[in-house]
């Protein structure tokens, strides 16, 4: 499949267009062979094409930004269901990377006021570029903010007013074995989460508790080994109700949700 997608990319046609392809021009064959060699050396497919599909969007990605995964689309599905019926909800995406979660929500809920927060100075340039592209296409603009999701001073002007906080934070335990595509090409700030993978999440929970209004929703993606640990951490931090964990389409634990007490 990767080879077909690379050839379609080189030729500027959809993948299905390869079915009626008679021959590949020599210059395209040379470019394809070079890209296929890089993919064989475990350079991510999305870095080679420069694009990553995410729900109804196609995002620009490349070196220095985390490539959005299909599993994260289910967190967005939950978020949109949570926002249904709210005309102008306030949403914060912590650790936005390419902007996938924030931009998908803004695209599918045009009334939402979405802020995307990113700490990495390289990754945030991708966030800004994708946000500008989607705004130019007519989507509700997303505010992109440079900041650390664990910073007690972050978004102080929104304290107690946010309807939904979502995040795909760094959650890989230090020293874990990951594929070369991840280890060599995803930015370290988007991956590593301390000895148990939950160090950043602990700070994220404090930020979310401060930002959310009573009854506001929280959704956090996690590693499939953290389906027990993350909900337990949320419960232990206090001030949360309806703490649940949700599987991905393969049945693996994938994200935890909760609501701020008092709503």
From TrEMBL:
GO BP terms, alphabetized: methylation
Keyword set includes Transferase: yes
Binding positions for substrate per the UniProt entry: 168-171
Pfam families: MTS, PrmC_N
Keyword Methyltransferase: yes
Keywords recorded for this protein, A-Z: Methyltransferase, S-adenosyl-L-methionine, Transferase
Region (Disordered): 240-263
Sequence ranges assigned to domain Release factor glutamine methyltransferase N-terminal in this UniProt record: 2-50
Binding-site residues for S-adenosyl-L-methionine, renumbered to this chain: 95-99, 118, 168
GO MF annotation: an example: nucleic acid binding
InterPro entries, sorted: DNA_methylase_N6_adenine_CS, HemK-like, N5-glutamine_MTase, PrmC_N, RF_methyltr_PrmC, SAM-dependent_MTases_sf, Small_mtfrase_dom
Annotated catalysed reactions: L-glutaminyl-[peptide chain release factor] + S-adenosyl-L-methionine = N(5)-methyl-L-glutaminyl-[peptide chain release factor] + S-adenosyl-L-homocysteine + H(+)
EC number of this enzyme: 2.1.1.297
Alphabetized Gene3D superfamilies for the sequence: DNA helicase RuvA subunit, C-terminal domain (1.10.8.10), Vaccinia Virus protein VP39 (3.40.50.150)
Domain (Methyltransferase small): residue spans on this chain: 87-176
Family from the record: Belongs to the protein N5-glutamine methyltransferase family. PrmC subfamily.
PANTHER family listed in its UniProt record: HEMK METHYLTRANSFERASE, MTRF1L RELEASE FACTOR GLUTAMINE METHYLTRANSFERASE
Function noted in UniProt: Methylates the class 1 translation termination release factors RF1/PrfA and RF2/PrfB on the glutamine residue of the universally conserved GGQ motif.
HAMAP family xref list: RF_methyltr_PrmC (MF_02126)
Protein name per its UniProtKB record: Release factor glutamine methyltransferase
Organism: Geodermatophilus siccatus
């Amino acid at each position: 499949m990767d080879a077909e997608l690379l050839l379609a990319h080189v030729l500027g046609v959809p993948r299905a267009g390869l079915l009626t392809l008679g021959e590949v021009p020599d210059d395209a064959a040379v470019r394809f062979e070079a890209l296929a060699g890089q993919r064989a050396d475990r350079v991510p497919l999305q870095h080679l094409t420069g694009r990553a599909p995410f729900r109804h969007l196609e995002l620009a990605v490349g070196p220095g930004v985390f490539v959005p995964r299909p599993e994260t689309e289910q967190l967005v599905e939950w978020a949109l269901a949570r926002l249904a019926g709210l005309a102008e909800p306030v949403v914060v995406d912590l650790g936005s990377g390419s902007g996938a979660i924030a931009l998908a929500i803004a695209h599918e809920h045009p009334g939402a006021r979405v802020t995307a927060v990113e700490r990495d100075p390289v990754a945030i340039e991708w966030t800004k570029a994708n946000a500008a592209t989607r705004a130019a296409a007519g989507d509700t603009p997303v505010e992109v903010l440079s900041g650390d999701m664990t910073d007690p001073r972050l978004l102080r002007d929104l304290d107690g007013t946010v309807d939904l906080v979502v995040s795909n934070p760094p959650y890989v335990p230090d020293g874990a074995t990951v594929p070369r595509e991840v280890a060599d090409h995803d930015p370290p700030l988007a991956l590593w989460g301390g000895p148990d993978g939950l160090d950043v999440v602990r700070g994220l929970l404090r930020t979310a508790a401060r930002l959310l209004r009573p009854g506001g929703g929280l959704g956090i993606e996690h590693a499939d080994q953290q389906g027990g640990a993350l909900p337990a951490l949320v419960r232990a931090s206090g001030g949360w109700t309806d703490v649940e964990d949700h599987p991905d389409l393969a049945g693996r634990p994938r994200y935890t949700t909760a609501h701020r007490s008092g709503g």
